[in-house]
Amino acid sequence: MENIELGLLLMVVGMVTVFVILLIVIWLSQLLISIVNKVAPEEAPKKKVAATGASTDAGAMDAIKAALDCGINFIDTAPAYNAGKAEQYIGETLHHLGARKDVVIATKCGNKYVDGKYIRCGSESLIRRQCEESLKNLQTDYIDLYLVHWPDPNVSMEETIGTVAQLKKEGKILHAGVSNFTKEQIEEASKYCEIEAYQPQYSML
């Protein structure tokens, strides 16, 4: 008899415990939802900015300013990032802050936009045009580091890298490099211009 009473008592205690835990979980969930809504109220979806993840032009430029305030002094971009918009954000922000000389800017060349997608193009005419467009977008008269974004199998390395070398001689870029090149391609590129930087395909994730 005592065993039955003890068993019933334990069952009741167990049920009450589960019920209390359930109430606590519900309360915590409601509290968390309330906090999230206060910190980040629900808003209508906004267009994302590819370069920064910010939802507005002002947000993108605020993100760049915040990076500079944290001591970041190297900015990597490219015409291929949001069809040149990323370069424009950077140029406008640096111009507004008067911080161009405090920052090292790297941008790229060698891609062109055709029928809704980017394709490789390392021709002299395209590289020269992209360089001028980047200078305008970045609101600067020189690019610290100019990278060939991808090697173009349909254009000779001599033409592609030779054009970059000429831009360096003209003072439009200060340093030359490549991105996504193989070891052999870098060695070939070095015949036509000193390759001072290499940006490989690498992710910390």
Give a verbal description of the structure.
By secondary structure, the chain is α/β, with parallel strands linked by helices. Helix content is 48%, strand content 16%. It has helices at residues 2-39, 57-69, 85-97, 124-137, 157-169, 183-189; strands at 74-76, 104-109, 111-114, 117-120, 143-148, 173-179, 197-199. The strands form 2 sheets. A 5-stranded parallel beta sheet has the order 1-2-5-6-7, with helices on one face. Helix 2 (57-69) packs across helix 3. The protein is globular, with a radius of gyration of 28 Å.
Shape: globular
Number of strands: 7
Estimated radius of gyration: 28 Å
Beta content comes to 15-25%
Gap between N and C termini, in Å? Answer: 63 Å
Helix/strand-derived class?
alpha/beta
Biggest β-sheet: strands ordered side by side in the sheet: 1-2-5-6-7
Elements, N to C (H/E): HHEHEEEHEHEHE
Summed over residues and divided by their number, the pLDDT gives a mean of: 80
Supply the key terms.
single chain; 205 residues; alpha/beta; five-stranded parallel beta sheet; two-stranded antiparallel ribbon; globular; disordered N terminus
